[in-house]
Each structure stands twice: as structure tokens, then as C-alpha cells.
Specification:
single chain, 60s Ribosomal Protein L30, Chain: A, 2 domains, six-stranded mixed sheet, four-stranded antiparallel sheet, 18 strands, 19% helix, 31% strand
Amino acid sequence: MDKLFNKTMIAIILPIALFGLSSCAVTGIDNSGDSRRIDGVMWNKQVDANTDSLLAKKAPTDQTRLVFVRSNDSYSEQTSANIAINNRFQVSLQQGNYTVVNSCIGTNQLSAHATGFKNNDLLANKKDFELAGGQTYFFYVDMAETGQSNLKQVTAESAMQLLKNKRYQSHQISRVIPNCPTPVVLKPQAIPMVIPVNIPAPVLAEKVTIDLEVLFETDKAIVRQDYYSKIVELAEFLTQYPNTVATIEGHTDSRGSDDYNQDLSQRRVNAVQEVLIENFNIPAERVNAIGYGELQPRASNDSAEGRQLNRRVIAIVEERLTTK
């Protein structure tokens, strides 16, 4: 497995951050440093944060708070620890960082598995923990240079030492089930009134096109799990911009009949749409799927290279039209 890990091509899942979103005029994808960029949209993956302030507010009584800390081991990004809670991906935790997640009380299955193994196994090395409401639990993520991981619970005192000089890494996309059972309240009149603060959702100023780089086997329309890391980029983007919709477009080369290519492209985009909805919890009304067959080539179909460019799946994300 170590050999497989060392030979794995770099394909890090793009994170969606909760801090510092801005736009720029350049195009393409940039994963350098703390910044992440897709075309004209840029955000920060990790930031300096006041740990005491983040942990000062007590967790809700119907939820439990989990803090994951990773040491400064200086290993490659391929050892990024994919943290999962109850088989739901949370964040790809890199060295020298920590993150905070709220979950439902009761039994929680926690796991940490290196990105570089490229198998999307969210239950790898899982451990069960019985967690109480209103409490904060700390977990240390120990990664080896070969990608082997060890997730262990530590005391609050030990965690405070581990958290020193660490940076907060925001979630790429949170999939913890939010509808935790509400605790029974015997005296509802004693509950203080809480006035919600409405924070406007970020607005996507311009349409963004994301190449999903999902490849299919011949005459097949099944998305293999090794391409889920490409689709998660789109899911994270849609989560960051909750007022947007995505149109998944499928294209083929010119081999085969028009009707065959049209049907094949539609079946393939339908498969990608289903993964977004079923595996990444994107509402169905926010994802459209259109197969164009061979009607919109971007290169000549006279060469193998051109045909490869024409076989593509892309996503176009734009603000949802609103009616007054």
C-alpha cells in the first residue's frame, strides 16, 4: 500500500473555506499556498484564528463538539487526513492545522484516512465514540509519511498544548446531519428569546465553468468512486454559494450515431447529477443535467487527441434567478 501511496498522482480535493472570499480577474485553477482559486473566484483555505474564542461558546445541549488537531509533521499534501464523521466527509486536514465540527449526540463513527490513497474510504480505520451533548471532545490526528493514520482522543489539557501555534482549517463541505433531536424542555417559558441574525449569503458575481474531469468506461454511464474527488469540488462550490444552480453538461466525440451519442451523454450527466444529490446532499432543484452528444465539439474529431477533448463533462454555476 505504501508503494501505491507514493506513486499516486497529486489530485488534492479543492477545499471550500468559510473565510475571506474574494474575486479576481484571472482564469484557471490555482492551489498555491493558503489560497484556492477557480477562474474569477478566490478564497482562503486556512487562517489564523483565536482558539480560545472559538471554544469559548458552549456547544448546544442537543449537539456535541469535536476538535481535530494535527501536528506540524511537514509531510506532503498527499498525507492530508480526510476526516469523516458517520461516513460523511468533513475536511482534508493538513499538517499544522486544526478544525472544529459539531455533530449529533450519541455514538459517532470517526475516521482519518490519507488523501493519497485515492479510494474515498470514509470508514477506513473508523472508531466509535459515545459523545454527550453540550460537551467538547478533542482528537489528535497522527499521520505517518507513508499515509498511515492514527486517530485518538486526548484530554482538554493535552489538546491545549497541541493547539498552540496551529492554524484553523475551515471545512471544505460539512455533511454532519443537522437535524439532531431537540431535547425535551419542561418549562418553555423559561427559555430566553433569541433573535436570529440574518447573514446574507455570498453572491456569485459571474458565471463559473468547472471542468469535472470525470471519465467513463466505453458505453458506460457509471461514475467510478475514484472520480468522486472531482465532483466534490463542485459540491463544495455550491455549498459556499447557496443561491446558485449548476447545469451539468455532457459531450461526446463524433464516433457512433447522433442518437446514440445524445443518449449516452444524457445518461452520463444524469449519473453525475445523482452523485451530487445522493452522495453530497445537494438539493435536486439546484442541479440540472443536459446531454449534448456530439453537437458541441471543442476540437477536431479527426484525431485521437481531439476526440479526447470532446469527451467531457462540465458544470456551469450561476446565481439562481429570483422573482419578486
